[in-house]
Each structure stands twice: as C-alpha cells, then as structure tokens.
Amino acid sequence: MKEQSAVVIGSGFGGLAAAIRLQAMGFKTILFEQRARVGGRAYQLLDRGYTFDMGPSLITAPSLLKHLFAIAGRDLEAYVSLVPLDPFYRVYFHDGTYIDYTADPERMRAQMARFNEKDAAHYDRFMKATQPIYEAVMQEGLGARPFDTVGKLLAFLPRALRLGAVQPVSRFARRFFKDFRHHFLYSFHPLFIGGNPFRAPAVYIMIPYLERKEGVWFALGGMYSLVEAMARVFLELGGIIHTATPVTHIVVKNGRVKGVETAKGFYEAKLVVSNADPGFTYQHLVDATYRRRWNDRRIARLHYSMSCFLLYLGVRQTYPQLLHHTLILSHRYRELIRDIFDRKILAADFSLYLHAPTRTDPSMAPEGGESLYVLAPVPNLLSGVNWKVEAPRYADRLLSFLENWGLEGLRAKLEVLHWFTPEDFAVQLSTPYGSAFSIEPRLLQTAYFRPHNRSEDVQGLYFVGAGTHPGAGLPGVLLSAEATAYAIAQDYNVRATSRTATWA
C-alpha cells in the first residue's frame, strides 16, 4: 500500500503497543509523549540507588506480549527477561492469618482447607465456571475486537447471562466460597483495574483463571525495562518518538482527522490513535463542533475509577514477611470500598498493596535494602480532598500503620521517600478527576458501553488504553491495541496479524 501517516498520542503500554502495530502494518507512525520519557503511567523513579516502578508492577498475560513482539518480527526474550513469581501474592487478613496465592491447585486447596474445607472442595468448580469467560475474552476475540455495535451486544448477551458474567464479581465468587478470606481471594481482582468488586460485572472473574493458566511475571530491571523494550522495537521498525511534546489539538476538517498540533508545529496524519483518556481527548483536543455523540453532557455522566495514593520508600533494611506482591487488608474491607467508590471520603483505615521487587531482582535497591512501593486506594478528586495539604499527613499515617503492622524501624531506616497523589494523576497524566484507571468498569461502562476503539464522532480518530474497550490493566490495554488495529485494518483496507488470524 502507499505509505500513510499515523499519530499516536501517549506512550503508555497501550500507546506503545498501538504504535508498534501501526508501524508493522505499514503506517509511517509518530508517537507524541507529553512527559520527558516514554511510559505514561508506567514510569520509573530512580533515587540514591533505589529503582521504583511508579505504575503497573506485574505481568499476567505474557502471551500477549510475545505476540506483539512477533508481529514486529522480534523475539520478546531477546529484549526483556521475564521471571515467573510463585506465589503470586501473599494476602494478610485483618485477623493475622494469611494465604499465599498460587497457581498450584493442590497448594491452594490445602491452604483453603485450614479455614473452610467446603470452600477448598469448590476450588476446581470455580475454575471450571470461570474458564468459559476466559475463553470468550482471551481466545475468541471478545477483548481483542471492537465491541462497537448493538448487534455484537445482542449476540453476546445470552451467553453472558448463561455464564453469569453480568452479575457482580463478588456475587459470582460467593456462590463458591463462604469464608471471607477465600471470597476475597477470588473476587478482589477488579481493584487492579479500577473496579469495585461489589459492582464490576463478572466478566472480570476470569482473572484468577488467566493467572493460573499464564502465571504472574516480573520484568527484570523493573516494568520500565518492558517500556524501553517496546519503544526500542517501535524505533527499530522506523517509528519516530517525540517526548516532552504534548499534543494540543487534533485537527479535524469535514469530520475527518487531518493531523495534530503540537508546540513543535503541525503534523499531518491520516489517522490519530489517542492513548489519553477518551473524555480528556474529546474535551481538550477535539473541537466541540465535531462532538455530537461525545458532547460535554455525555462525558459528565461517565463514572471514573478511584484513584491511588502511592508511596515510594527506599529503606536500608529488608522485611522477610513481604513477598514480591503483598496485600494487607482492613477489618472493614467492604465498608472501605464504599468509602472510596461511593461516599468518596478519606477513611481512617487502610487496605494496601505493597510491591517489594528485590525479592525477584536485587538490583532494584542497594544491597540489604528494599525499594518499596505502597499503594493505598483512595477516592478520586470528586472527594474534594486538598492533596497539597493532605499528602504529608496521609504519608505519615501510612508509615505509622506499616510500622505498627510489622515493618519495624521503617522510619529510622528510610533513605528515600516520594509520593504520588490523585492530583498528580490529574496534572501529570491528564486523567479526569485524578482517576488511576480511567473509566470505572461497571456493567453499563463495559464492552459496548465504553468509549469505542473507533471514534463515533470523528473519522480517523481511534482510542487505545484503559479508557476504551476492553479496559485497564496490562492485558486490557494490550488487547485494546489489538482491537484498535483491527478497526484500522478494516477502515484502511490493510493487512494485519492477530493472535489467531490475518485480517484483510
């Protein structure tokens, strides 16, 4: 085909994956990133020998990455070293008990039997019930194709009802597990993509099955090594990257994309793929004249995910009670979820995720130290919290909690302390209301009801990443890049390769 030009706005995992696909399809592709380095949410912090992944911290579908590199004619293993984790996580409950969550059915059943033998006996039934949902999303193309017509919705709905995929994740898990520990283990995963487990539809219940099938992995050198590998592949294919270059306007004429305006000037393009939040893209980059469907009223009705308060701690001490991934749960988990998602108040207690990558890669911290990443789910900016005032107080409360919980000497051994607040999400990452995962995955914001991969308003405008179909998380945004590439292949009559077929 005659070489055509494309622009990708934003270099998160979704943007990088889309850029690689476009360049491999024959488009002359330029990627613009507003920050100083590529990565978007998947940024990296270096301080005094400590290395921190600032965003995504685990890989749960390496097959998607292998395929992405393969369509670029590359071998993933030649660019980045992935290490499997076992256990996947350690989950500490409020009563002092814990479970090491693993893919091994025997080990899981043995741990579960300590608390409820019937639950342990239901483990295999649960996995069997979630397998068809996994197959629909990951193998049959539900997640990797645009879900943008009523016909597709009506075709899938009977099957979704039959599989129980429309009910909340929490309710689905309750059919199998009565003990609060087991119920949490198999229903909390929507939190990893910005969802409330008590209302996110059970299409997301497939994540435990995905983890058991493909494992949980870590990239040596940190997740940013994967960002660098993807950027390198894109450049090797002939792509161009401009960092520290925000796109200020998507130029549209007669309803069709003509290019983008940046501080460096105008860049012509046949198509634009935005890795920025769809609502932000429409409101700040596209003239209102061209937004008949996605006008300001419709965007205002969107429900955005919670945010996160993140601490990055360089500590000259190690804590053996922490695994690579550790969860610490509050005694009032369900009420805390309501505080965060519905009441939008900053609660007095915490449920936390801790990332301690030196368990797998000692190079992430000086010898004898920890580069700890502490994530506290908090309300987005609709809470009205002034984080310029609250951040140091909240950080102090978190440090006190962690010391009392068991990380003795944390303050005394602290060498590096940074934080990232909901305001930082809003300012540095252009996320509406400082949401950490874009649009919340609730039933009427899933699949057909999310902003589509192909714009409904502007010809030649597409979306990739957490805010479009299928949603947030590394597997979600990689699938969204595949879905968007599929739409572009159809619209521009080019060939592109999926995991199961070649599109014409």
TrEMBL record:
<dbReference type="InterPro" id="IPR008150">
    <property type="entry name" value="Phytoene_DH_bac_CS"/>
</dbReference>
<feature type="domain" description="Amine oxidase">
    <location>
        <begin position="14"/>
        <end position="488"/>
    </location>
</feature>
<dbReference type="Pfam" id="PF01593">
    <property type="entry name" value="Amino_oxidase"/>
</dbReference>
<dbReference type="InterPro" id="IPR036188">
    <property type="entry name" value="FAD/NAD-bd_sf"/>
</dbReference>
<protein>
    <recommendedName>
        <fullName>Phytoene dehydrogenase</fullName>
    </recommendedName>
</protein>
<keyword id="KW-0274">FAD</keyword>
<keyword id="KW-0125">Carotenoid biosynthesis</keyword>
<comment type="similarity">
    <text>Belongs to the carotenoid/retinoid oxidoreductase family.</text>
</comment>
<dbReference type="GO" id="GO:0016627">
    <property type="term" value="F:oxidoreductase activity, acting on the CH-CH group of donors"/>
</dbReference>
<dbReference type="InterPro" id="IPR014105">
    <property type="entry name" value="Carotenoid/retinoid_OxRdtase"/>
</dbReference>
<dbReference type="InterPro" id="IPR002937">
    <property type="entry name" value="Amino_oxidase"/>
</dbReference>
<keyword id="KW-0560">Oxidoreductase</keyword>
<dbReference type="GO" id="GO:0016117">
    <property type="term" value="P:carotenoid biosynthetic process"/>
</dbReference>
<keyword id="KW-0285">Flavoprotein</keyword>
<comment type="pathway">
    <text>Carotenoid biosynthesis.</text>
</comment>
